[in-house]
Sequence to fold (274 residues):
Amino acid sequence: MIEITTLNHRYPNGKLALDSIDLSIKRGEFVVIAGRNGSGKSTLVRHLNALLLPSSGSVKVNGLCTKEKANLLGIRRTVGMVFQNPDSQFVGMTVEEDVAFGLENTEVAPEKIKLLVESTLRSMELSDHRNCSPRSLSGGQRQKVAISGVLVMEPEYMVFDEVTSMLDPVSKLEVLATIQQINEKGISIIHVTHRLEEAINADRLIVMDSGRIVLDGAPCEVFAHPDLVQKYGLELPPIVELSRRLSDAGILKKEVVLSKDDLVEELCQSISKT
Ligand code: ADP
Ligand code: MG
Fold:
């Protein structure tokens, strides 16, 4: 469990980037954090593995307070972070070396490292590229290498800060599917994005504005307030927008539909009734 209590973050220039944040994230949860640029998303998630420390309030990861220096290693092991630009995260000459890097700085035995790297590359469908330079791969594959380097450390929580924003549409889908798979292994996901369609499969959607949490609920609950979503600088996913319009026009009974399959099913039902 991650427990954040009345967290404030003030940068040295005086900017209050987080304003009284209270938030708990459970093991296994898939949480999306959305919000316009500058709303405080990156500042918030950097607190989850002690890259930033509270100006006031507290952040606890499995009971370990981020302010205690002695907890740092344990917290970094528990919460892994992946950032927007994979190229800034590469350290190895080959994919294999790169993925092994984090583990080589721990007490894990070399044979165990080899096994962990192998199984991670296999699960990420990167085994065939193990001897390539990470930089020679496609954008999606490069991001998957960066994700593997964190996954191999066996974290309980993984934070993805706008990891899809620099990718082409195909790579974006590939990386989103990977994130979903990681969640299915039982690892909690905290996925930061400003595209609400990436929240459709999440357990929970949190919207931030001006350093505060302004919406927090199941995606379909948040999508039921299109005026608020718009007020906070976000757009409803196209499928949700379409279903709302059809519902307003009296064609659909359900207000919020989250997938193409559901939309077709709802349409078939309403057509068969007429
Ligand atoms: P987001 O990730 O939602 O775009 P950030 O957490 O990066 O938002 O930023 C929140 C606010 O804090 C913004 O107003 C931003 O300009 C400010 N900010 C971010 N980093 C710094 C910094 N290092 N120094 C001062 N202000 C910062
Ligand atoms: Mg950011």
